[in-house]
């Protein structure tokens, strides 16, 4: 099985890993978890869960586009939220809705939301990873 690793334009260029792995055959697309960074690696929405969720989903869309996919091709999302409590759901969903409005689509694939103590960068409140299948 051939695997192509890419860092799409519009996402930070990270030396330690690539943002997207594309496996040929039935074309599975595996994304690294996306945080609320802009293309220069600057955190968007510090302290604002909805803004960070929105940026994470926009980054997922950018990574998918780099692999020739869209949210319509996503088969699974995993979302990690720092210090998750159920009362944050409305704010989380606000961020998803804002991203959906900007993307012109409603991302509704199967998903898992996991509460975590922290992410690798203290100001990041959420991380979203996705798997897509194209073809």
From TrEMBL:
Domain of life per record: Bacteria
Q: Which InterPro entries match?
A: RutC-like_sf (IPR035959), YjgF/YER057c/UK114 (IPR006175)
Q: Indicate the segments annotated as coiled coil, or none if absent.
A: none
The record's Pfam families line, in alphabetical order, gives: Ribonuc_L-PSP
Question: What is the name of this protein?
Answer: RidA family protein
> Which organism is this entry from?
Nonomuraea terrae
Classification lineage: Bacteria, Bacillati, Actinomycetota, Actinomycetes, Streptosporangiales
